[in-house]
Every structure is written in structure tokens, then in C-alpha cells.
Amino acid sequence: MKITVDFEECLKDSPRFRATIEEVEGDVCELESKLDKLVKLCIGMIDAGKAYNSANKQFVSGIRELAQQSAKDEVIESSLTKFAESLQEMINYHTILFDQAQRSIKTQLQTFVKDDLRKFKEAKKHFDKVSEEKEAALIKNAQAPRNKQHEVEEATNILTATRKCFRHIVLDYVLQINVLQSKRRSEILKSMLSFMYAHLTFFHQGYDLFSELQPLMKQLGGQLDQLVVDAAKEKRDMEQKHSTIQQKAALQDFSNDDTKLEYNVDADNGIAMEGYLFKRASNAFKTWNRRWFSIQNNQLVYQKKFKDNPTVVVEDLRLCTVKHCEDIERRFCFEVVSPTKSCMMQADSEKLRQAWIKAVQNSIATAFRDKGDNCEKLDRKSSTSTGSLDSGGEPKERSLKGESALQKVLAIPGNGCCCDCGQPDPRWASINLGITLCIQCSGIHRSLGVHFSKVRSLTLDTWEPELLKLMCELGNKVINQIYEARREELGARKPQPGDPRHEVEAYIKAKYVDRRFVRRPSDEELRTKVVSLSKQEKRLSSSSDHLPPKAPPPTPKLRPGSHASGQSEKSADSGIQNSADGSRERLATAASSNSLADAEAAEAPPLPATLPAASPCKEVVFFEPKEYSPGLQLYWASFARSLPDMAEALAHGAEVNWVNTEEDKRTPLIMAVHGGSMVTCEFLLQNAANVNQLDAQGRGPLHHATMLGHTGQVCLFLKRGANQNAADIDEKTPLSIAVDAANADIVTLLRLAKMNEEMREAEGPYNPSGQYHSNSPTEMQYRKCMQEFISLQLDESE
Fold this sequence. Notes:
Pfam families: Ank_2, ArfGap, BAR_3, PH. It is found in: Cell membrane; Endosome membrane. One of its GO terms (molecular function) is zinc ion binding. Residues 403-525 form the Arf-GAP domain. The chain is of the alpha+beta class. It folds into five domains: 7-222, Substrate Binding Domain Of Dnak, Chain:A, Domain 2 (Up-down Bundle), CATH 1.20.1270.60; 226-255; 271-370, Roll (PH-domain like); 395-513, Orthogonal Bundle (Annexin V, domain 1); 574-612 and 629-797, Serine Threonine Protein Phosphatase 5, Tetratricopeptide repeat. Helices cover 60% and strands 8% of the residues. It is built from 26 helices and twelve strands. The strands form three sheets. Strands 4-3-2-1-7-6-5 form a seven-stranded antiparallel beta sheet, covered by helices on one side. Strands 9-8-10 form a three-stranded antiparallel beta sheet. Strands 11-12 form a two-stranded antiparallel ribbon. β8 and β9 (435-437) form a beta hairpin. The longest helix is centred in the N-terminal third of the chain and has 74 residues, at 149-222. The chain is flat. 31% of the residues are buried. Mean pLDDT is 76; it is low at 371-400, 538-616 and 765-774.
């Protein structure tokens, strides 16, 4: 419908004019919508046509190949060749038709929409704006008080100017409306007429082409009568088969109310099993939604609608477990747990739940039987490592780090094969055990839980230097000497590559969960081990004192160290102190670049220009304990920097946060701080040591590292979420201790950490776990600075 607006009427700005304008605007808006839709449909038609032409070309090529294969049959060869030529001509005609459609519909209508409708919209914006200004001027003029002449004059002048502007704008707007309404007819008809002429030409060409082909088609049609008779016979046979299957299905429905689901690993479409399940969402409301699930290509996927792309729940079923869930309100629930997430699902009945659980278990077993390229392909897939600290790197940087980590870890004796089954060339590792694993064993280790094993990829994940050094100080050979000490004695068979998954899983659980093959030490052996560890630390501390060969071992006591002992401990930490000097300037610059750090630096006491000597520390001396235990072995092994002895103590059941009540309630982590080894601290932290556990003096590991001036350990504890605001019984925080000791490096680190914590709290909720997930520039700069400092400390002090 063509709607025009009268120029005289627009100057009156009457309700009739406003109604006409509103009608025009609605009509133009609808016109734009229809034209946009038409252009999009045209584009879709053209794309579909091009795809059709492409597929048609392949089809014609197939006809030609079939004609060549039938060269001995002259009728088939000649007929197919003629048909292929004709169809190729039709493809050419289609191509011309789509080109014409693009020029006539898409290009012309898009130009009309972009140019003319855009001008209309701009004119409408000006009109709406000046209309509002005119309305405001009228209101102001009406509200001007009679006794204030200057306000009356001002309102009158504004109204006059606004009316002039309105008349100018409204006339332009009406002109644009009338021009658009006049032009729309010609533009639409011109494009459609051009499109219809293109179709006319296309069908004329097709008619002429098939008129020439018609005699041959009639000739062949006469030969096909026999085929019709054969088709009728096949139809009768198919109807009989249909009736038989329908009766069989009715009998099955009568005997079983549930939908019958069968697991078929050899299905032609690759879908081993499919059906509807309810899935619990991972949002805060935990809503349940019905989705179409399927097990295909060793993956568990679901779809909301058939046209949607499948959503992958489990990337690879070899890395997951499935179990019943009876502790929630809904019935028939089961859970599929993967290394990165878990998915709670609900079936319609108990039979269906059992069928799905069995199907997932069968898929896992089938996947592990399928060897070859699949394992290598899976090994290259990305994984989320439990307990890893993301240091934020590009994919290329990660790959380089992964290859470097792989070379270093596999160079350790025994690491060239899987620790549990002996599969060569492992690509995974358990970072808290310090061993390398194959893909199958890594999946089993993940299912044990992170309290037993934390799995990480050697090729895909980023490896922090302290964690890499931890892996290099343990290894498969050391761990197997501990966890398989009694295997041969008990007659247990160690799995081999290719063994069934359930056998490997049973062995790994017996080895690490039940610790069935660990040799339990006698009291005398434990006593000898603890005494030996204390002697190792005395040698490390360069002390000339040693224990009598047969005297009973004394109780650990702390006594104030002499100046010589303090000097000795200072010498032991000289590597850390010297390395701190090299990075002090960089950290101080990073901290001073932020105003928060400047403010805190202004509040804290100024550091002297010349640093005094480190204050003397208490020397650890060994005396006979009341009772020997694996916890005591872990305690002294941490002090002696002996990771194999620490791993052995944990295997014997030592509590990683064991407290020595006779020695100020110190823990193995605190003793590791006094031992001066960053890798020892990392090993305890990876095995769930509490970084904030306090001793009897109210001091945590961060307090002790600050008092001893162990800068690298301070970095490590801050990185793992140590509370730097905790105060001891003397009301001393780590920062105040560092300020009193005039340790510029540690003061700078603590201030930088506090500044970063305040920035993180300002950006969002604080994450008390100590794992840094923020990607803000401040957070990334802080993490990078801390990691560089730890790397420097490891290079120089370890």
C-alpha cells in the first residue's frame, strides 16, 4: 500500500498528520523487515543452489565413471554418457540463474535498503528530535509568568526559532517519505521482474535441452516395463516382512513396559546407545532438563533438539567412571565422573538406569581394547590437571614447556616406562607421587581422587620449575621400591601393557589405596631411619657433632644457636640471599609502580641503606623422642631434604600435617622450611600440607621462612595462599618480622602480595583456596613476577 503525506498538512502538525506519519513509519519498518528477510532468503537460496550444483557435479562425475565401467554394454554406456552431458548443461544453466538472482534480488534490494531506507531513518531521527524540542518550547512558553517580561520574551523567541526549524525539518521528512514511497514500487518490481526473466530463460533452455533428449528417454522407458513388475513383487514381500516384525514388536511391548535399549558397539552410524535422560544443570539452581543422550565414538554427548550440534559431556570415556547415586531426592539417578567435571543424570526407570550404566562401562572396556592410533590421539588432547597452578601462557608456549618437561622427566632412570604397567613412552605424570604414567593408568589414577594422585600431562600442561625439580628427585624406580617392596613376596602379578582395565585398576588400588605391597618397618628399623635422617641434616648443616653409635636417640630440642651456628645457617642460605640480590631491583620496581604499594611503603618503617647481618636462629638438635612413628620420620626427612624418605613415610601412613607436640607443635612443612629446600616444601604442599598451620608460637611456615630469610620459600607460600596477615603470640606478622630484620627482598615480596590481594578483592570475591584464576593485568603481572623469582631461587639455591 502506497501512503503519501500532504505537505500542507505537515505544517499544521495536526493529529491527522501525526497518525499518517505513524502509519508511514510502521509501513516502512515492516517494509525493511520484509526486504531484509527476502534478501537473506535469496542469499540462502543462492548458497543452497551452489551447494546443489557442487553435489550435482560430483553426481555427474559418478555417472561418467559408471558409463566407463560399463563400456562393454553399448546401450548403457551411450545412454549414461548422453544423460551426463545433459545434466552438465543444466548445471551450467543453474549457475547462470543464481548469478542473475544475486544481481537482481540481492544486490538491487540491498542497495535500496542501505541507501533509501537509511536516508529515511536519518530524516526520522531529525524529525523526532525537533518535535521534542518544539514540544518543550511550547510548554516553556505556556508556563512563562505574565509579570516577568524577560522570561516571556525568551520563551517567545525560543518558540519562534523552534517552529522555523520544525517546519524546515518536517518538510524534508515528508519529502523523503514521499520519495521513498514512490521509489519502492519501481525498485521492487524491477528486481523481481529481472529475476523472473532469468527463470524464463532458464526454463526455456531446459525445455530445449530435454526436447532433444526425449526420444532416447521414451526408448528406454519401453524397456523398463519389466522392472515395474519386479518392483510390485518386492513390495508384496516387504509388506509381509513388515507385518511379521510388527507382531514381534507387539509381543515385546506386552512383556516389558520399558523402552528396550541395547548396547551395540558395532552400530553402522557409530552410535552404540541412545535415548532420553534427565540431566542436572551445573548452575546455581541445579535444574533438571530432558535431553537426548548418546554414546558414540567413545564419547558421551547430548542434544536438546535434533538440529542442534551435540554437546560433549565426556571427551573420552576411558578417563571417566560411572556410579549409582542414592543420596539425592530423585530416583533412578547415576553420575558420570570425568577428570574435569561430573554429570548427574536420571533415567525413567531402574532398568533403564542399569542399561545406561552397563553401556558406559562397556564403552570404557571397548575403548581400552582398541589400541593403536587412538591412544596416541588421546594423549595429545588437552587436560585439566588437578591442583596445577596456571601461569598463563599461549598455546605455543605451553607446547614448548611440555616438550621440555617431557625430556627432563623421562631422563630419570625408570621413568621411560609407565610406573604401574610398564607401557613405554609415558606422557602423563602423578605430581604428588613423582611418577610417570601411560594414558590408561593415568585415567585410573584420576578416578582414585586427588587425595591419592594428582595427574598432569607431560606434553600439554605448563610445568612450574619447582614441580619439575620435584619430579626429577623422585621417579618410578624410587616409588616402586617403596610401594612394591612386598609384591614378589606376596606373589602379586604386576600388570603388563594390554592387560584388561579392570585388572590394572585392581592392582593400582591395591598398590596406592590399600598399600598392600608396602613393607611396614619395625620399631628398630624406624628408629634407625630417624637417627640416620638426623645425622644427614647434621652433615648438611656442616656441624661437627654427631650421635654416639649405640646411644639412644635424644628428643628434638631447640636451643639458642651460638654466633657460629647462626653464621653456619646463614652460609647454608647464602644461595638464596645472593639470588635475592639479583631480583631485588625488579621486584621493587614492580611494587613501586602501583599507588597501593607506595602507600604501604610510606606506612612501614623505612629500610636502612645497609642491611645488617641476619639475626641468629635456633639450631635444631636431635634428642630421643618418647615414641617413633611414620610422622616422626616425615618430620625429620623434611628437615633433611630427603624426598624418598618423605615418600616412604607417607606410604607408611604418616599424616602430612603431623604435629610434634614435644617441639612447639611444629609440622613437617615447618621443618622443611628450616631445612632450606624449596622442593621439599613443594612436595608436602602437593600432598595436601596445610600452608597456614601454626606452631605453639602462633607461627606458620610463612613466619619461619621470613625469620630465616628464605626468600624463595616466601614466594612459594604466597603463591599457595599463605595468610600473610596472621600474627604470632608476639603480635608479629611476616611483614613486621621482615621489616625488623631489614630484609628488603621479603618486605618487597610481602608488600607486593598484599597489594595484589587488595586489587583482587576490589575486582571480585577473594578466592581463599590460594589458586589464582584471575586474568586481570595486575594478577598476571604478579604471578609472572613471583614465578620468575621462584625459578631464580631454584637455579641458584637448589
